[in-house]
Amino acid sequence: MERMERSSLLVIFITHPYVILSIYGSLTLQISNNNITGKIPLELELATQLQRLDLSSNHLIGDIPKELGALKLMLYLSLSGNQLSGEIPSEIEVLSNLEHLILASNNLSGPIPSQLGGCSKLLILNLSKNKLRESIPSTISNINGLQSLDLSQNLLIGAIPRQLGLSHSLEILDLSHNMLNGSIPTSFNDLHSLTVVNISYNQLEGPIPNIKAFRKASFDALKNNEGLCGNATGLLPCVLPAPNNVGHRTKIIIFVVLSLFSIFLLLYILAGSFHILRRKIPNRKSEPREAQRGDIFTIWGYNGGIVYENLIEATEDFSANYCIGLGGYGTVYKAMLPTG
To answer: C-alpha angle 268/273/274, rounded to 5°?
Structure first.
């Protein structure tokens, strides 16, 4: 009997949406797990008292109508498991009372609208298994009471916003199977309510947060990233340099360079001084031996010239016939030089 009623309601829903709205009254419309086809009727905006709408696991196509923004009393909206396409309408921000938004397993594309931050009472946000692109909007952190966030299996890129670490009520976080990069924000160390986390199949690197959810996470929840490290199963421990090590090494290098420069400069000055001093000292060794002998036997003529040749001739080349004795400074000869 219940199945018949539901089947009948399906027909009415597709052909006469006004009728089904009057049948369900004002609070709940739940037609999940059926074979409903076609688009979501725009006339749903007339059900302004509707608080729960569940059309999940059907064969609905087309865009999510922006007219759903008129349902300001909505607490629960599930359109998952259909074939909906297009972007998530920005008008969703007016659903300020919404607590559960489940749009998983569709063909939704485009960015996650930053206006989702206006749904400040959200507890559950599930946008997984779509084709959502661009980065995670930081405005999600405006949802203070958010308990479960599932953005897995999309095409999201960029870094995880540090503002997400302000979602202190977060218990479940799944960002797996995207293209997120960079390190996990240090603000995640404050997510003490977090119990389940999955960040696998991204391009994340660096240390994982030092909280229980990450330390106790299975390797499957962390694997296939660029280079995560930390105290968790399957990860290598992080080797982080002390904050002052880099500066200390730089100071040592500068000191060594300056010392070597000073040594080379000193050697250059000493070498230059030695060269200048050497040029000023006469080189006596280079004088001819004859000149040295001439210092001993120098005889000044009347004209002041050396007459060594005359002395050789007068002594017959220093013959012993002219030797008159031996002195302390050498042999003494006597000869008669020609006068003139």
So the answer is: 100
Strands (E) across the chain are located at: 28-30, 37-39, 52-54, 59-62, 76-78, 83-86, 100-102, 107-111, 124-126, 131-133, 148-150, 157-158, 172-174, 179-183, 196-198, 203-207, 227-229, 323-327, 330-333
Catalogue the long-range contacts made by 93-98 (C-beta closer than 8 Å, 24 or more residues apart).
93/69, 93/117, 93/118, 93/119, 94/69, 94/118, 95/68, 95/69, 95/71, 95/119, 96/72, 96/120, 96/121, 97/72, 97/73, 97/121, 98/74, 98/122
d(CA 264, CA 256) in angstroms, rounded, equals: 12
In this structure, how many other beta carbons lie within 10 angstroms of the beta carbon of residue 24? 18
- Mention every residue, 6+ apart, whose C-beta is less than 8 A from residue 120: 96, 142, 143, 144, 145
Mean pLDDT confidence for 287-305: 46
Contact 20, 9 (CB under 8 A): yes
Tokens of 61: 């196509």
Residue with tokens 């259909």: 82
- Angle ∠(56,60,62) on CA atoms, nearest 5: 125
- Residue pair 57/81 in contact (Cβ under 8 Å)? The answer is yes
Judging by beta carbons within 10 Å of its beta carbon (0-12, 13-18, 19+), is residue 281 exposed, middle or buried?
exposed
pLDDT digits (tens, 9 = 90+) for 214-273: 999 999 999 999 889 988 888 888 886 555 555 666 777 887 777 777 787 777 777 777
Helix axis angle, 17-24 relative to 2-15, nearest 10°? Answer: 130
Q: Tell me the whole-structure pTM to 2 decimals.
A: 0.65
